[in-house]
Amino acid sequence: MKIKFNMSRLGESRWYEYVVRFIFGGCITAVAGLIAKHYGPVVGGLFLAFPAIFPATATLIEKHEKEKKKEQGKDGTIRARMAVGLDAIGTSIGAIALAVFAIIIWRELPHSSLPAVLISAMLVWMVTAWMGWMLWQVLRRRGRVLRQKQSKQACRSSLHIGPSTDRRMQ
What we know:
Order of helices and strands: HHHHH
Mean pLDDT: 81
Helix content: over 70%
Largest sheet: none
Radius of gyration: 23 Å
């Protein structure tokens, strides 16, 4: 699967959906700021790593997928769950890469120049995100292969269960 950017998808959202995302992300950022003020910047920074936009995006993805299937006269619940699940995987991979970026900045900034630290942290962030995506692809393929093997084994074993093939039953 190639990663690609599709500009036509931007037109599928309505203006108020962007407002919801913006407000929700802003609220999460404000709460993280309050946590940082009360417990310190290290704890508050952990909450800033929370993908602020994900909850709003997940609900909008679910809504759009259900609407698409409804137009076709189908129930889109399963499709919507799959789409949100895939988005959650991407969000998780991005959050892990962001955490790696933050750790590099936190550990190296006191000892090195800002441009050098930012460039190295950005490169490590990109490599971490890419490796996370590649790992996800490998695990997804492996799961698919395992499910196919299990399905074939179940099919083979069901062929030997019937009364005409089971000698103990005769």
